[in-house]
């Protein structure tokens, strides 16, 4: 439907009074604001010396969580690799070693290409056993592309570093594996 | 014209030019710092304590950058423009007092002059005064120039050639628009600039800035108290002449990619920027001298300072007082930059032609009336305030807006605002 004349409201700027027409009071008012800001508290963060306070749900470098016995929690179900929109996760599964009663498989290798990752956090959401999490580590650097491909040891060491530093506490329950690791109910 | 020791003058030129160049470097730092503080930031603080070595780094960056001369420019004028801008900026400071100065002795009229070598004739007394004047040091490169203010304005008008040449030779539409705006703006604002200062010149009876300063010190009253309106007009025109916000249309970054210096790089850009800051320094000194009593500060300086502080103390105190006033103006320049947004071009023109030129003219008429009828000078203060308020009231009375114009306009189709069809 085209606009009609009745749809249009003409807005007028307010008419200036004597003080407004004299300009100087308005300019003095503006100068007060400007000078007031000069002496306000500054918002600048001095970055390298002063680390930013990140929210706990910040999505930085990944880590592979360990359970209470120090083993990787991952059960090599490939759900994170499937969910990943950037296809940056590469897992090679193997039968779980003897004595690992709670699972059938474990990841023989677990590689994330941190350059390809878009840090969307969908792997974290997909994981049924809360094994993969994104940490608040943001200063991720490397001298080559190879350095930025994180393998299982590197991802586990991220877990060690971040839990020790206290920046990212373990968010899952007491090191137990989730319901996906439980054996299927007997028929 | 008295003679001067040319060695002192050469040394003073070197010192003053060096001081101006270094001050400009630190003004750029001050500009960045003040910009940051106004925006609740800290500003440059990495190079040296509180970023105090930043100007050296900035200068080094300017030196080391590649000096690009684009293929499409008119090379002669492209190279000439920064020189003109820089040269005129440096020339303009020649007559401006930067410290203690004494006006040259006034010429004496002697009716029926006696023999030239007779003792104690007016001629000999005048020569003795001239010698006494030449013996003491004046803090100005060319002291005692009786056309001082005229010279500053003449050289200041030449400065626009730097801008116009830069914009024209760049063969670039943005640069050309910038320089066109600059020429129109400076032609418009030269008029209130010159007319507002005429009142001060009439008050002192001289175009010599030193005599204007001396006149204020003898009267014990700064000119700004007698002529606040003239000062306001002069200050506003100076903002326009220096291309400072809110009058920085020639180089408006957001619309013109830097305006007339779009095509410049490296040290040539540095020279253009340096010229602008040098203009700020010159005009700030000029405003301090013409309206704020030069090196006069009640309570600190008196008429016999040399007896109180000694010659060196006097020189230092007077230069410091004047420099403090100058830096106050520069701080005002920088704070206003972040206070008032840029004018639209028609607003700029209507401010000059419809407000400032009539006001300057009326102000001048008031000064002439006071001179003619010998009224006391404080009536000029009253006249300034009355003129200013009347102008505001006139604005309120005559002010319409686009949709409700006060003046009669052509009959328009219903609903459409004036100026659309």
Mean pLDDT of chain B: 83
Helical residue percent band of chain B: 55-70%
Give the ordered list of helices and strands of chain A.
HHEHEEHEEH
Question: What is the chains' assembly state?
Answer: heterodimer
Q: Output the number of helix runs of chain A.
A: 5
> Can you count the beta strands of chain B?
0
CATH architecture of the domain at 62-171 in chain A: 2-Layer Sandwich
Outline type of chain A: elongated
Class of secondary structure makeup of chain A = alpha+beta
What Rg of chain A do the Cα atoms give?
28 Å
Give a quick account of the main beta sheet of chain A: strands, pairing sense, barrel closure.
3 strands, antiparallel
The secondary-structure class of chain B comes to mainly alpha
CATH first level of the domain at 62-171 in chain A = Alpha Beta
Q: Which pair of protein chains has the largest interface, and what are the residue counts?
A: A-B, 29 and 29 residues
Proportion of strand residues of chain A: 5-15%
Number of strands of chain A: 5
Structure, explained:
The complex is a heterodimer of chains A (187) and B (421). Helix content of chain A is 23%, strand content 13%. Chain A is an alpha+beta fold. Chain A has a domain at 62-171: 2-Layer Sandwich (Alpha-Beta Plaits), CATH 3.30.70. The longest helix of chain A is centred in the first third of the chain and has 15 residues, at 24-38. The termini of chain A are far apart. With 421 residues, chain B is mainly α. Chain B has one domain (6-108, 136-343). In chain B, 65% of the residues lie in helices and 0% in strands. In chain B, α1 (6-38) crosses α12 (305-337), α2 (54-64) packs across α11 and α11 crosses α12. The longest helix of chain B is centred in the first third of the chain and has 33 residues, at 6-38. Chain B is globular, with a radius of gyration of 24 Å. The model of chain B has no long low-confidence stretch (mean pLDDT 83). Classes of the chains: A alpha+beta (187), B mainly alpha (421). At the A-B interface, α1 and α2 of A face α1 and α14 of B.
């Amino acid at each position: 439907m085209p606009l009609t004349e009745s749809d249009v409201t003409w807005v007028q700027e307010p008419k200036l009074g004597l003080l407004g027409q004299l300009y100087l009071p308005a300019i003095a008012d503006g100068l007060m604001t400007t000078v007031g800001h000069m002496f306000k508290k500054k918002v600048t963060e001095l970055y390298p010396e002063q680390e930013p306070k990140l929210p706990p749900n910040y999505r930085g470098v990944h880590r592979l969580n360990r359970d209470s016995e120090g083993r990787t929690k991952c059960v090599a179900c490939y759900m994170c690799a499937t969910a990943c929109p950037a296809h940056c996760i590469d897992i090679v599964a193997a039968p779980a070693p003897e004595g690992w009663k709670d699972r059938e498989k474990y990841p023989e290798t677990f590689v994330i290409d941190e350059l390809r990752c878009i840090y969307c956090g969908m792997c974290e959401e997909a994981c049924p056993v809360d094994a993969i999490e994104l940490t608040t580590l943001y200063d991720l650097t490397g001298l080559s592309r190879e350095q930025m491909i994180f393998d299982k040891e590197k991802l586990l060491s991220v877990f060690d570093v971040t839990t020790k530093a206290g920046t990212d506490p373990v968010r899952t329950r007491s090191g137990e594996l989730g319901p996906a690791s439980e054996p299927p109910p007997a028929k | 014209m008295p003679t001067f020791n040319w060695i002192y003058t050469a040394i003073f030129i070197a010192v003053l030019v060096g001081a101006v160049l270094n001050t400009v470097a630190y003004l750029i730092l001050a500009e960045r710092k003040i910009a940051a503080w106004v925006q609740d930031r800290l500003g440059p603080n990495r190079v040296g304590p509180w970023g105090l070595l930043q100007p050296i780094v900035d200068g080094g960056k300017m030196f080391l950058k590649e000096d690009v001369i684009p293929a499409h420019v008119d090379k002669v004028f492209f190279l000439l423009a920064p020189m003109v801008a820089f040269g005129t900026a440096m020339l303009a400071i020649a007559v401006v007092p930067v410290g203690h100065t004494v006006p040259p002795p006034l010429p004496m009229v002697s009716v029926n002059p006696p023999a030239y070598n007779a003792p104690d004739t007016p001629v000999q007394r005048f020569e003795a005064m001239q010698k006494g004047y030449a013996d003491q040091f004046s803090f100005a490169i060319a002291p005692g120039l009786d056309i001082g203010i005229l010279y500053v304005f003449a050289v200041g008008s030449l400065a626009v050639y730097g801008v116009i040449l830069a914009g024209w030779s760049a063969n670039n539409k943005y640069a050309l628009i910038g320089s066109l705006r600059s020429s129109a703006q400076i032609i418009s604002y030269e008029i209130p600039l010159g007319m507002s200062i005429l009142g001060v010149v009439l008050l002192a009876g001289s175009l010599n800035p030193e005599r204007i300063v001396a006149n204020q010190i003898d009267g014990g009253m700064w000119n700004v108290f007698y002529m606040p309106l003239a000062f306001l007009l002069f200050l506003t025109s100076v903002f326009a002449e220096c291309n400072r916000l809110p009058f920085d249309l020639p180089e408006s970054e957001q619309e013109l990619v830097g305006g007339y210096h779009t095509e410049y790089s490296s040290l040539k850009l540095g020279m253009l920027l340096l010229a602008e800051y040098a203009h700020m320094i010159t005009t700030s000194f000029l405003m301090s001298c013409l309206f704020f009593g030069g090196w006069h500060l009640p309570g600190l300086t008196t008429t016999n300072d040399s007896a109180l502080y000694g010659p060196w103390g006097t020189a230092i105190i007077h230069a410091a007082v004047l420099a403090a006033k100058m830096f106050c103006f520069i701080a005002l320049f920088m704070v206003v930059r972040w206070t008032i947004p840029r004018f639209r071009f028609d607003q700029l023109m209507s401010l000059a032609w419809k407000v400032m030129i009539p006001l300057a003219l009326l102000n001048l008429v008031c000064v002439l009336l006071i001179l003619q009828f010998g009224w006391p000078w404080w009536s000029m203060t009253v006249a300034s305030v009355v003129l200013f308020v009347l102008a505001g009231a006139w604005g309120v009375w005559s002010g319409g807006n686009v949709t409700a114009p006060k003046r009669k306009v052509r009959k328009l189709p219903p609903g459409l605002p004036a100026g659309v069809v």
